[in-house]
Amino acid sequence: MSLTLYAAPGACSRVPMMTLEEAGADYDVKLVRFMKGEHKRPDYLAMHPAGKVPLLMTNDGPVTQNVAIARYLAAQFDGLLPKAATAFEDAQITADLAFCADTVHPVVTRMRMPMFMVEGDEAMASVRAKAMDAMAPLAQLINTRLGKGNWWYGDAWSVMDAYVYWIWFRITGAGFSGAEFSHWAAHAAAMELRPAIQRALAKDAELQATLEAEGLAPKFK
Ligand SMILES: N[C@@H](CCC(=O)N[C@@H](CS)C(=O)NCC(=O)O)C(=O)O
What we know:
This protein has helices at 14-23, 42-45, 66-76, 87-112, 121-146, 159-173, 182-192, 195-213, and strands at 4-7, 28-31, 55-58, 61-64. With 221 residues, it is an alpha+beta fold.
């Protein structure tokens, strides 16, 4: 199985990067330079018509969307998601992944990238403030869930842990206070002790170093 992950440092492509490391998969990483618009070029759009990362190129073809990539990898490698015994259990797993992708991630984007939504400093500050407010109840949900066990699904690590860890990194990096969310903070600390996660973070840091060396690292206010 040949696997190539198209990724940008700090982006949600970190979720499959952590997943691939946890799976012990043999894979290549291709850096996508947002500032050069590489993700909007015809060759990339042919693989990912929405022009986003992550993209996982496989022997079967390109797999896009974090939810689909997580499920695809979990079908190839053990230990990435619980094995659903019923359609209902399967739906719960999809709902968990979709909660991250469809409910929380858009709020992260508003917090981190208000310039995608509006123009002008005042309008951007307003979008960011609203996103901080919208994040609070979502953070509470995640924190409560993580207070029930070591990992999202209790004793077993899963892609959900990678997903909520990426969200934690993004929101605390954007100034959202994690102080009230002690279970989530403890989860993030536990993630950082895992060798596979350390390897993924090191790979992501290499991508960032490449962008910086090329003068292509985005600068945010
Ligand atoms: N629902 C998508 C979200 C992908 C997404 O928004 N990726 C961002 C990075 S976190 C991106 O590629 N942004 C670049 C852009 O929109 O130009 C997924 O889960 O794969």
